[in-house]
Amino acid sequence: MAEPAQREQVGDHRGTSRRHGADWVGLLARLALGGVMIAAGVPKLLDRTASIQNVLAYELFGYEVSRAIGILLPVAEVALGVLLILGLLTRSAAALTGVLMLVFVAGIVSAWARGLAIDCGCFGTGGPVDPEDTTYVTSIVRDVLFLALAVWLTVRPRTPWSLDQLLTRGR
Q: What angle do CA 163, 170, 90 make, to 5 degrees?
């Protein structure tokens, strides 16, 4: 039978292992979410006209507002992706990414509910499609999974190989 001090050490080791495992899960979440944000934003940055048309396809805003969203959204996506990849301001970047995912899901649900037949334009190609070519369920499920990653990182932003850890080391 283990002595109380030995049991405490074993318990401490298990707690440390769980924390380290969660840190690595956070790293994977950070890199995956950051990579997705960059992959979504870069094609739109390279083709602003298509990005604006993607926003117009949702029929939620007038041209000027859609144009502003079509220009600014890819910049925000890439900026958040870079922050997440670097692990800099991780909690804030993850929280903002989560808000974007909620907005994306709401936009897709809105288009679906109004009977629009569009591609979400999430990764640069969007606009009207044939009704049988819509992928609303897949897009919503995918964005909810990304939202889950964002929530994980918002709650638990500590991850290995992050600038946040490097900058706060010793504090």
A: 25
Please tell me the distance from the alpha carbon of residue 129 to that of residue 149, in angstroms, as a whole number.
29
What tokens appear for 46 in the block?
Answer: 């390279």
Q: How far apart are CA 112 and CA 38, in angstroms?
A: 26
Contact, 33 vs 150, CB < 8 A? yes
116: left (phi over 0), alpha (psi -120 to 50) or beta: beta
User: pLDDT 10s per residue in the chain (171 long)?
Assistant: 556 666 666 556 666 777 788 999 999 999 999 999 999 999 999 999 999 999 999 999 999 999 999 999 999 999 999 999 999 999 999 999 999 999 999 999 999 999 999 999 999 888 889 999 999 999 999 999 999 999 999 999 999 999 999 999 866
Beta-carbon count within 10 A of 12 CB: 10
- What is the number of H-type helices and E-type strands within the chain? 6, 2
Question: How big is the chain by its Cα radius of gyration, in Å?
Answer: 20
**Partners of 168 in the beta sheet?**
none
DSSP, collapsed to helix, strand or coil, labels residue 1 as coil
Q: Which residues contact 58 (CB under 8 A, 6 or more apart)?
A: 107, 110, 111, 116, 118
